[in-house]
Amino acid sequence: MTEITGFIAYPACPSEIGQTLERTISNIALRPGIDAFQTWREMDIPGRFIAERVLEFIDGKECLIADITTFWFS
Fold first, then answer.
1. Per-residue pLDDT tens digits for 44-74
2. Structural domain of residue 30, as residue ranges?
3. Which of 9, 15, 17, 30 could form a disulfide with 66 if both were Cys (CB 3.0 to 4.6 A apart)?
4. Closest Cα partner for 67 from 22, 18, 5?
């Protein structure tokens, strides 16, 4: 079976979105052929412009999954 690779992007706030997606990634990693998904939390980005590094990660993957929900604090 061919390995599927992907990058999953999501906002840092609210934290519940990230927690849910990170748990989901852990669960799908248990399935054969679907163990190469990464998130921005796995990137080594200290001192670098984050968008540049994110684009590098996305470029080498077969798919991108992104939560682009906006959240309004009241």
1. 666 556 677 778 878 878 888 888 877 666 5
2. 5-66
3. 9
4. 18
Find residue 36's DSSP bridge partners.
Answer: 5
* Domain total of the chain: 1
In this structure, the strands spanning 36-39 and 5-9 are parallel
Query: How many CB atoms neighbour CB 41 within 10 A?
Result: 13
Q: Tell me the HSE value of 16 on the side-chain side, using a 13 A CA sphere.
A: 2
Q: Helix, strand, coil: what percent of the chain each, to 5?
A: 35, 20, 45
Give burial (CB, 10 Å; 0-12/13-18/19+) of 15: exposed
Of the candidates 26, 36, 27, 25, which has an alpha carbon nearest to the alpha carbon of residue 1?
A: 36
